[in-house]
Write a structure and sequence with these properties.
This protein is an alpha+beta fold and 142 residues long. It has a single domain (7-121), classed as NE0471 N-terminal domain-like (2-Layer Sandwich), CATH 3.30.2020. The chain is 29% helix and 23% strand. It has helices at residues 31-36, 41-44, 88-96, 98-112, 122-128; strands at 7-11, 16-21, 25-30, 62-68, 72-77, 85-87. The strands form 2 sheets. The chain has a 3-stranded antiparallel sheet. A hairpin with a 4-residue loop joins strand 1 and strand 2. The mean pLDDT is 87.
C-alpha cells in the first residue's frame, strides 16, 4: 500500500506530526488540525450528522504517538483526548486534503459563531476568586 508512512516524527515543540512516504513525499500536520479532525466517536459521532464541532483547540499540544498494530496510530493530546485510531488510510487522506479540510473546518467554526481560541473553564475561574462571607458582628454590650 502506498498510503503507509515510512516514518512518523512528532515535533513536540512545534506540535507538528511529520509523515514521510516513499519515495520522497512528506507532509506536516499540526496538532490542532489532527485534534479537530480526530476520527473518534467523540468528534465524528456515532452516525451520519452526529459530528461535534471542536472549538477552542488552537493551543492544544500533541504529547504522544502510539503504534496500534500495523494499521494505525493513536494520538494523545494535552487536553486529555486520546480516543480514535488514525488509520494509515485516514492519515494519508488528511495529508492529501489538508487545505480543503482546514478551510471547511474554519468555515464551520464561523457559521457556528465558535472560535479556535480556548475558553477559560469554570474550574479555573472559580479557583481565581475566593468569596468569604462574614456574619455581621453584634454591637458591643455596654
Amino acid at each position: 500500500m502506498n498510503d503507509v508512512p515510512t516514518a512518523i516524527t512528532l515535533h513536540r515543540k512545534s506540535g507538528i506530526l511529520e509523515l514521510r512516504y516513499a519515495p520522497d513525499r512528506h507532509y506536516e500536520l499540526p496538532a490542532e488540525f489532527l485534534r479537530v479532525l480526530s476520527p473518534s466517536a467523540e468528534v465524528r459521532g456515532h452516525g451520519r450528522g452526529q459530528a461535534v464541532l471542536q472549538s477552542g483547540k488552537r493551543q492544544v499540544r500533541l504529547l504522544q504517538v502510539e503504534a496500534v498494530g500495523h494499521y494505525a496510530i493513536r494520538l494523545r493530546f494535552d487536553d486529555g483526548h486520546d480516543s480514535g485510531l488514525y488509520s494509515w488510510e485516514y492519515l494519508h487522506d488528511l495529508c492529501l486534503r489538508q487545505t480543503e479540510l482546514w478551510g471547511q473546518y474554519l468555515h464551520d467554526l464561523e457559521q457556528a459563531g465558535a472560535s479556535r481560541e480556548p475558553q477559560p473553564d469554570a474550574a479555573s475561574l472559580s479557583e481565581a476568586v475566593q468569596v468569604i462571607t462574614i456574619a455581621p458582628l453584634s454591637p458591643p454590650k455596654a
